[in-house]
Amino acid sequence: MVKSMLNGQCYCGISLPYSECCGSLIGGVQVAQQPEQLMRSRYSAFCTGNIDYLVATLHPEMRRQDDREVLQNTIANTHWNRLKVIATSLQSPVKGEVEFVVFYGSTAQEQMHELSRFVKENGRWYYLDGEMFNHHSLGRNELCWCGENKKLKHCHRTS
């Protein structure tokens, strides 16, 4: 399912229009300068259904023949709600990590919490792989998982 933008801000949660944020990367106008920027643009590509960008930004050694089919199925069956970046680190000029949580579906329990690894080759960042973590809990004063840009305590309450 293609997610709609909220208040004109980019899908990735940055308070810029999509065209000035992830859209310029996905459209090939710019290339990601940091792992976090690539990770955010990949989330936006999931939200917009841009399989070509997702494949192109996956490290060539990690690509499989069924990537397009798997991505199409994931995109068609997932309602993307919100991206929360937890931490970023640059181990060297060509290696970096981004820990994030993606909330999807109709409850806070539907989420993917991952530490992604990125490498830079020939001037371009690529997603390499990721380590999955357990459920991530939001604090009551954090933005809600649903993507409405309201604090959790004013939006969806958890018991």
Which helices and strands appear, and what pairs or packs with what?
Layout: H1 22-26, H2 35-48, H3 51-56, H4 67-76, E1 80-92, E2 95-104, E3 111-121, E4 124-133
Antiparallel strand pairs: 1-2, 2-3, 3-4
Description:
This protein is α+β, with helices and mostly antiparallel strands and 159 residues long. The protein has one domain (18-154): Nuclear Transport Factor 2, Chain: A (Roll), CATH 3.10.450. Helix content is 22%, strand content 28%. The chain has four helices and four strands. It has helices at residues 22-26, 35-48, 51-56, 67-76, and strands spanning 80-92, 95-104, 111-121, 124-133. It has a four-stranded antiparallel sheet with strand order 1-2-3-4, covered by helices on one side. A hairpin with a 6-residue loop joins strand 2 (95-104) and strand 3 (111-121). The longest helix has 14 residues, at 35-48. The radius of gyration is 15 Å and the shape is globular.
Number of beta-strand segments: 4
What is the share of helical residues?
10-25%
The helix-strand sequence is HHHHEEEE
Major pleated sheet: 4 strands, antiparallel
Rg measurement, Å: 15 Å
State the name of the first-level CATH class. Answer: Alpha Beta
CATH fold naming? Nuclear Transport Factor 2, Chain: A
Contiguous low-pLDDT stretches (5 residues minimum) are none
> Taking all residues together, what is the mean pLDDT?
90
Number of helices, counting only DSSP H or I runs of 4 residues or more? 4
Structural classification: alpha+beta
The strand line-up of the biggest sheet is 1-2-3-4
Strand content: 25-35%
Spatial shape? globular
Number of domains: 1
